[in-house]
Specification:
Layout (H helix, E strand, L loop, with lengths): L4 E10 L2 E2 L8 E6 L5 E8 L8 E2 L4 E8 L2 H4 L13
Antiparallel strand pairs: 1-6, 2-5, 3-4, 3-6
Length: 86
């Protein structure tokens, strides 16, 4: 659904890989550190990219998956500050 996504919350900051197995639409994947700063973005990752795994270089505590194009639409880029309410 537009404007919605899936948030993954990890116990500790680290490197977390994601792939597009069994997906039917493209996603933007955002890795976010414990301070709420976007540390990495993969934009418009397609289901056809499977089995490639996308993994962050900088530690992240959260990963947000949204529809492809949503990150740009919302003006999100590496260094953006986001508010996460658990």
């Amino acid at each position: 659904e537009e404007g919605k996504g899936m948030l993954f919350v990890f116990d500790t900051p680290g490197r977390y890989g994601f792939w597009m197995k069994d997906m039917s639409f493209s996603l933007d994947i955002l890795w976010i550190n414990e301070d709420g700063i976007v540390v990495e973005i993969e934009r418009a990752v397609t289901p056809q990219s499977y089995p490639k795994t996308y993994i962050n270089a900088s530690p992240a505590k959260y990963v947000l998956e949204v529809n492809a194009g949503e990150a740009e639409k919302r003006g999100l880029f590496i260094g953006s500050k986001v508010k996460i309410i658990e």
